[in-house]
Amino acid sequence: MSKAFTREENDGTYVVTVEGVDIYDPVKNSIEATSASKVAAWFLDTDYDGKVFCICQAFFPDKSAWEKLSRALKGSIEEGAFEALSGTTSIPFKPGERKTIAVKVIDPRGNEVMKVHRLRGENYGE
């Protein structure tokens, strides 16, 4: 299960923060909590329809991957852009028509988990 939390800002926008993901270890037959810094990637659909996940924002918290990409692009991307896309907090967004978002987290092994949030309401569909 992903650990993602949504909060409403004073201007009516929302921000999502990913704190980690629980990963099943088949060797130990246990579930282990993993911090957000160990998440390979996470994606946000800001107007989830309950059927199709559409990536509106994408983040890659593993900073070592960004360092390699930055060197490969040789400074053609603004430094601040890498910082924003390697975080665990989304860019503020206006709620969509459905008032429902979905957060998809990819763990280091490539497994994915999705959590759905109703804005201004309770979570459902985990």
Architecture overview:
- Helix content is 14%, strand content 39%.
- The chain has 126 residues and is mainly beta.
- It has one domain (2-124): Sandwich (Immunoglobulin-like), CATH 2.60.40.
- It has a five-stranded antiparallel sheet with strand order 5-4-6-7-8, with no helix packed on it. A three-stranded antiparallel sheet has the order 1-2-3, with no helix packed on it.
- Strand 6 and strand 7 form a beta hairpin.
- The model is unreliable at 121-126 (pLDDT under 50).
Keywords for this entry:
126 residues; mainly beta; Immunoglobulin-like; five-stranded antiparallel β-sheet; three-stranded antiparallel β-sheet; 8 strands; disordered C terminus
What is the element layout, followed by pairings?
Layout: E1 2-8, E2 14-25, E3 30-35, E4 41-45, E5 57-59, H1 63-73, H2 79-85, E6 100-106, E7 112-118, E8 123-124
Antiparallel strand pairs: 1-2, 2-3, 4-5, 4-6, 6-7, 7-8
- How many distinct folded domains? 1
Q: Under CATH, the topology is which?
A: Immunoglobulin-like
CATH class annotation: Mainly Beta
- Give the strand content: 35-45%
Could you tell me the mean pLDDT? 83
Outline the low-pLDDT stretches. 121-126
Task: Round the Cα radius of gyration to an integer and report it.
Answer: 15 Å
Q: Strand order, main sheet: write it out.
A: 5-4-6-7-8
Largest sheet: 5 strands, antiparallel
Count of β-strands: 8
Count of helical stretches: 2
**CATH architecture classification name:** Sandwich
Q: Helical percent range?
A: 10-25%
Task: Return the string of H and E elements.
Answer: EEEEEHHEEE
Which structural class do you get from the secondary structure elements?
mainly beta
State the end-to-end distance: 8 Å
Per the principal axes of the C-alpha atoms, what is the gross shape? Answer: globular
